[in-house]
Amino acid sequence: MTWFEPDGASWNYVDRRLIPARLLSLLLPALLLLPVALVPAVLFGGAVWIAVAIVLVALAWISWVVVRQVGAHAWAEREDDLLVKRGRMFRRVTVVPYGRMQFVEVEAGPLARAFGIARVQLHTASPGTDASISGVPTDEAARLRDRLTARGEATLAGL
Asked: Which residue has the higher pLDDT, 83 or 37?
């Protein structure tokens, strides 16, 4: 047992469709910069090709980081709380007790809807413990919202 792998946690990893959705939103502006770097490189040659190389290396780095981040994003429902983990290098585990949840919302922009995924946002009594889970399939996001809301109400009813 560690901070990042608590006992009794059965992790549900986010959908891999989050990878192309994030890559599209992050890399599209970078791909628009590529012709801006290519035109001077073709016209003037020489050291200007370094700018093209920098853009290509940045694209590769961003792609690698996104794949790694998505692979580390997961949630686990336990008896009394919800765990949300993310990050590989800078790990973060958020524990949200069901009794502290005020409301749960599901949101999906146009790109997320096109990929069939959504984001589940948990709001608690303390703004420091809010958590979100990106890349949840839309059907599962609705079920998760309903389960978390029911558990939160049941926990509050016991107070």
From this structure: 83
